[in-house]
From TrEMBL:
One of its GO terms (biological process) is immune response. Gene3D superfamilies: 2.40.50.40. The chain crosses the membrane at residues 33-52. This is Uncharacterized LOC105931377. One of its GO terms (cellular component) is extracellular space.
């Protein structure tokens, strides 16, 4: 519904149910649309991590210490999004994972087998 008062034409705005100029109503609607798009984009980036892989940039030269409490490890290949082959090692009580040479995987397997064997032997005694 249009009401002509002086120079401006006022209309009832669906978004705020007030009598405002048609320019103000469209600006309010545009602002709401922009806000919704920004909010949905932020949620998508947060939940999908924007599809950005976490890659090791360099490898530490120190070998894995057998006393480290290794929780798990993953293999990073250079044929995908990452530039180097690496082993990503997640250590308990450490916020960032270690990046080691892939040859260290044999050492990690040996350490975990020994740890399991020790645990098993300590339960038997």
């Amino acid at each position: 519904m249009y009401v002509h008062v002086g120079i401006y034409i006022y209309t009832e705005c669906f978004c705020c149910e007030d009598r405002v100029s048609s320019f103000s109503c469209s600006a309010i609607m545009n602002l709401k649309v922009v806000f919704a798009v920004v909010l949905l984009s932020a949620l998508a980036i947060t939940f999908t991590h924007a599809g950005i892989p976490k890659c090791c940039i360099r490898i530490t030269k120190n070998p894995i210490d057998p006393r480290m409490k290794v929780e798990r490890w993953e293999r990073q290949y250079s044929n995908g999004a990452c530039d180097i082959d690496a082993l990503i090692v997640y250590v308990k009580n450490k916020t960032t994972p270690l990046c080691v040479h892939p040859k260290q995987e044999a050492r990690l397997l040996k350490i975990t087998k020994l740890r399991k064997l020790r645990r098993h032997l300590s339960r038997e005694v």
